[in-house]
Structure prediction request, 378 residues.
Amino acid sequence: MAVKEEFLPKWIAWEITRRCNLQCIHCRSSSTIESEQGDFSTEDGKRLLDDISKLSKPTVVLTGGEPLLREDIWELAEYGTKLGFRMCIATNGTLVDDEVCRRMKEVGIRMVSLSLDGSTPEIHDDFRKQPGAFEGVVRATELFRKHGIPFLINSSFTKRNAFDIPNVYKKARELGAKAWYMFIVLPVGRGEEANAELLNDKEAEYWLNWHYELEKELILKGDNTILVRPTCAPHYYRIFYQNAKRDGLDLKRRNLVFGTGGGKGCVAGQSIAYIDCHGWLRPCSYFPESDVNVFDVPFHKAWFESKIMQDMRKIEEFKGRCGVCEYVKICNGCRVRAYWKYGDYMQEDPICNYVPVKMRIGLKSPGLDLSKKESGGI
Ligand code: SF4
Ligand code: SF4
Prediction:
């Protein structure tokens, strides 16, 4: 079977444990210290990495929960490195010490991602529900700098902390992050309970426009100190294009070596995927459903056989505004937000308020009665 290069895995997040020592309000898996460890053995884990390598040599991010709580993390990471994968770790930083850094280097960890959701201990610790979490992140960045381990910072935002976005960016830069990802929280996991706090379409648009100005300034100055990207806001690619056109600029965006998107807003199920601690394969970590388990069906088969994964690649079958949008090939819309709003992941992304040209000139879109659409987000 001829396989389109764009539909091969380039980035996989693998939840190696669900246990976590924090209880963040937006956590996709509602993890706690008592959550299950994950059913798979070290040998099963290595077999999974072998299966992935039959398709490609992606970036593999070991995540959780808190992945450092899993004892065989170094064995799995080293195995992945030997297979030629770019192995990364996503940690909350609180368990990082000199020994952890030494092991990271030993097994070839290429990048670590940390979460920082506030520029001060008060804001971050309130979001993370853990006094001392902020200090844990700052201490981890000091250790990474000392040991020469590159790290990036993910920052999650809701109405609770969005006011602090510019300061968090400055803090990430000051701490020496190679990249800063501004993540607009989705309605999943514990985040579902916090739905009232989610940014709506207008607020998201405001902050994505702010982000465009930031990225524009960095590009125009030739400032490569830190790379910036919003994550899980695919319509940023539409906003970036529209604003650059308005400004009469031909802005060359930097590529992320360890990024997920490339030249497109969302590539869930197309070139990225998520495997949970029980082996369920999903298009991304926030996707609520799975129809295949990689401990039953080997990854290199599951990647193609899963109907959900196949659907993610059928851009021409998207519905609503995304179905007729002239930006769909660079944006894709968020399939998770579509699912939560309409119960159908092929529907339009409700956090984007763009009305495509074809709709404005009266062409009908399949599958959505716009007269019933509420405004103001999800
Ligand atoms: S589907 Fe939505 S949540 Fe998943 S990676 Fe894409 S933008 Fe993010
Ligand atoms: S309508 Fe859909 S495809 Fe078009 S910009 Fe918005 S989210 Fe992207």
Summary: Residues 186, 232, 234, 266, 268, 284, 286-287, 334-336 surround iron/sulfur cluster (ligand 1) (CB under 6 Å).
